[in-house]
Amino acid sequence: MEIEQFRSHSSGPSGLGQRQRFQQQRGGPLGLLAARQDAVERGLVTRAALRGVPTLLRGSSFAYRTKRPLEGGDTFENGVYAHGPEADAVADEYVELLRRWDRDLRGGPGARIEVFPATRPTSELSR
Question: Where is the composition biased (Low complexity) (predicted)?
């Protein structure tokens, strides 16, 4: 699938969660694949894209996460779909990002956000 074809079947971005922010910071560039029903029906993307899924972009290739529930609980299994001439490489990169997030950050304290007056000198900001 070419990026132009992808763009014609997607809609605008929405907010990102903790895992998605990690992916953006460590993997970037990250977009949000939010497809319409007709793109799913044509087999261009999975149903997960109807809700919007973070998508790792690399040239004319992209990869996005999907999940399926496991029997007997509230847990699920992650998977990655990729499209384009470098699909295997971008899928591998996305899988590694998911593994790093799971290993290093999952269940952690989350983001720390501080607000300071615009007049405060940067030398006085905490690091």
Answer: 16-30
